[in-house]
Amino acid sequence: MTPRVQALVVGGGISGLVCAYALRKAGLDALLFEASPRPGGVIQSIARDGFLLELGPQSFSGTAPLRALFQDLGISDQIVQAPEHAPRYVLVDGTLRPVPLSPPAFFTSSLIDASTKWALLRDLVGKSVPPNADESVAAFVRRKFSPQLLDHLVGPFVSGVYAGDPERLSLRSAFPSLHEAEKSAGSIIRGTLRAARTKTGPRERPTLLAFRDGNEILIRALSNILGPSLHTGASITRISAQNDGSFSVQFEAHGASESISTKSLILATPTNVSAKLLSPLDPSFESLLAPMDYAPVAVVSLGYPISAIGHSLEGFGFLAPRSSGLRVLGTVWNSSLFPGRAPEGHALLTSFVGGATDPSAANLPAEALTSLIHREISPILSIAAEPVFSNVTVWPRALPQYNLGHGGHLAAVAKLMRNHPGIWLAGNYLRGPAIGSCVEQALAVADEVREALEK
User: Fold this and answer.
1) Which of the four pLDDT bands, split at 50, 70 and 90, describes residue 153?
2) Residues 394-453 pLDDT 10s
3) Among 385, 400, 415, residue at a domain's last position
4) Which of 21, 60, 87 shows the shortest CA–CA distance to 204?
5) pLDDT tens digit string along 284-322?
6) What is the distance between the alpha carbons of residues 414 and 142, in angstroms, rounded to a whole number?
7) Distance between CA atoms of 292 and 437, rounded to whole angstroms?
8) If we measure between CA atoms, which residue out of 197, 420, 165, 170 comes closest to residue 296?
9) Cα three-residue angle 276-277-280, rounded to 5 degrees
10) Based on the number of CB atoms within 10 Å of its own CB, is 161 exposed (0-12), middle (13-18) or buried (19 or more)?
């Protein structure tokens, strides 16, 4: 007899893990299948030669749902916070310039010229109307402010968050609060302030967090609680709908083919995987999900003796505009932010290459990437010696791209989903790629599944 569960989550990244955890916490019989040997997706930490590396996200922003999750998991005491006022830098004309992080700093910064500052004042007192058509981030910044703001600040920020191309990234999909601010108030500043005043619930101060022993602590905590309900090395081969509204799921695990039946199926997999699994139920899934873009990213971690670095490394790190002519997108100064990231007397620097503007960079051999990063950051940080440690990790599909038309694609997917009750989607292509966004979306899906089963 085919075993049956109330809910089956497919995909063991952060979205799938949190969704399965929330379902089981609500008392539901839920299982999680992950095709790879380990859960966690891009959240992976390794310790080697005295260095503690993050192979994916280096840190995350604190949110109320995240803190509640950490409390539930019993890992809040393992959180460490980056220095609150750690400066961020952007590379302009070969020099690291501090990013203004407050209105007074913005208006006194030499990073931005007078015309851009005047454009910001004009937004404060004036009124504008966003176009009806989907608008790229680059077009928005040029229309509202200036090409200089795009090159010096917004473009590098987009590279840091999405590894994206501002010429293709959709403003209303990637930064919906900015679009809504202009739409509701005719001003980015006034609309943002109005939204902040009307926001309900606890207000979380912006903080940059990590786990003392690596961000994979979160993955281990979720995995330990899920216990035998988490199955790694379990690859889905076919999904078919049954007459009673349930789904029959065929899978391979440990060399054997098996099947399981479920009333609720949650796919927390990348869009290309979800498209392939769902296309037998409806070919429209393939046409809507498969074309969504992902950017490749190479993560290059280098260790140096502190004595060989002329820069103080006081701060978060730096971002490099595409106009700099460099291939590095940015560099995080890990050992300046969190304890235990490098041995005594050493520094750990993690750089990123590739993204939507330079996808071929992620195809370079590890040795070439190490050499490239060392060559590009050495003059910026006054590094006078070769790295004593290196590690390269390449993610071919690192980050989903919320490009022009993304919102329309998601609306079409949501409409299609209404024809297939019992199926849910979770993942970083829905509400944002940040860990906090993924957790919130996964918790919302778990609530929907629970309510549907109760009915």
Assistant:
1) very high
2) 999 999 999 999 999 999 999 999 999 999 999 999 999 999 999 999 999 999 999 999
3) 400
4) 60
5) 999 999 999 999 999 999 999 999 999 999 999 999 999
6) 32
7) 19
8) 165
9) 90
10) middle
In the prediction, which pLDDT does 105 show?
83
Q: CB burial class (10 A; 0-12, 13-18, 19+) of residue 142? A: middle
pLDDT at 200: 67
Q: How far apart are CA 292 and CA 294, in angstroms?
A: 7
Same domain flag for 167 and 191:
yes
Look up the CATH number of the domain holding residue 324. Answer: 3.90.660.20
Residue 57: inside a domain, yes or no?
no
Nearest of 224, 297, 268, 389 to residue 58 by alpha carbon: 297
Task: Identify whether residues 422 and 396 lie together within a single domain.
Answer: no
Using a cut of 0.70, tell me whether the model's pTM lies above it: yes
Please tell me whether residues 307 and 396 are part of one structural domain.
yes
Inside any domain, residue 316: yes
Bridge-based pairing state of the strands 294-305 and 256-267 = unpaired
DSSP conformation class of 136: B
Alpha-carbon torsion, ordered 96, 100, 105, 111, to 10 deg = 50
348 falls within a domain: yes
- Measured between alpha carbons, how far is 11 from 41 in angstroms, rounded to an integer? 9
Radius of gyration for the chain, computed over Cα atoms and rounded to the nearest angstrom: 23
Q: What stretches of 163-282 show up as alpha helix (H) in DSSP?
A: 171-174, 176-185, 188-198, 216-226, 271-278
Residue 63 lies in a domain: no
Distances (CA, A) of 62 to 69, 210, 314: 11, 9, 22
DSSP 304-349: EEGGGB-S---SSEEE--GGG--SEEEEEEHHHHSTTSS-TTEEEE
Q: Are residues 379 and 414 in the same domain?
A: no
For the ranges 108-117, 213-222, 266-275, 344-353, the lowest mean pLDDT is seen at: 108-117
- Measured between its terminal Cα atoms, the distance across the chain in Å is 26
- Contact between residue 61 and residue 52 where contact means Cβ atoms under 8 Å apart: no
Q: Quick one: 10 and 156 in the same domain? A: no
Which residues have a Cβ under 8 Å from the Cβ of 384 and sit 6 or more positions away? 308, 309, 310, 378
SS3 50: coil
* Boundary-marking domain end, from 198, 224, 252: 198
Residues 375, 327 share a domain: yes
Q: 156 is in which domain, residue-wise?
A: 102-198
Number of domains forming the structure of the chain = 3
Token pair recorded at residue 402: 């919320």
